[in-house]
Design brief:
Elements lengths: L1 E7 L6 H4 L4 H4 L4 E2 L2 E2 L25 H4 L5 E7 L5 E4 L1 E2 L6 H4 L45 H7 L7 E8 L18 E7 L10 E7 L9 H34 L1
Antiparallel strand pairs: 1-7, 1-9, 2-3, 4-5, 4-8, 6-7
Amino acid sequence: ILIYYGLENFHQNHRQYADSRDDKQLNGGRWTNGKPDIPDFDCEAPNDIDNKTEKPIVPCGAIANSFFNDKVEMFFKNSDCDWQNITLLRTGIAMPFDKKRFNNPVDKDKDLETLKDFITKPKNWTKNIWELDENNTGNNGLENEDLIVWMRSAPLGNFRKLWRRVDHNDRKHIELKDGLHTGYMYTVEIEYNYQVSGFDGRKKVIITRANPLGAKNKMRGYIAMAAAVFFYFFSALFFLLARAENSSNQKN
């Protein structure tokens, strides 16, 4: 079972917004002698350097600054009528190709917090980069999968992004091994942090089953149908034109 968050009227495909990032910084490469370099010019002010401390913002740019930061928890009522917390996995949600492009600037055996004297967080963040997943060092900092998922810009103004995976291998809840059964009651709790009123948007939570064909996307189907009609029409048109030309050549 997969949990997505969805946003409406949020245009990540705006060119200036989509370009506002420093891929070299995200890959852990914009560092010299253990200290951060100035972000790339694509990270325009005020999302490049903190004016008060003059420290580089990591990660810089408008995309990172608007990082989705709501929290979700899911519960079910078992056969004893007790509400139990369902384990939600925060890893395995980012594409493997994307994960290779995000790397922390410190060695695996070093604490990310050692960077606090050299960098600062984006202006809209409530947490520092080393606090994104304090329970899993492999999912913290620039390698945090929530951040990686968010940094892949959506092509449309209404979109959904993978948020969590239900842990069906949790031995504490063997009842959920094969999915969320209809015999139990479920509830979802959302910690509301991400404001959508500023862009007149809406947000939603989608719970769905894993599908080898990918997530449900009506717009993708509409585009495929429109493309099929377009190619069919012009194929038929060119076929008729070719036949007409051949007929005229034979008469001549």
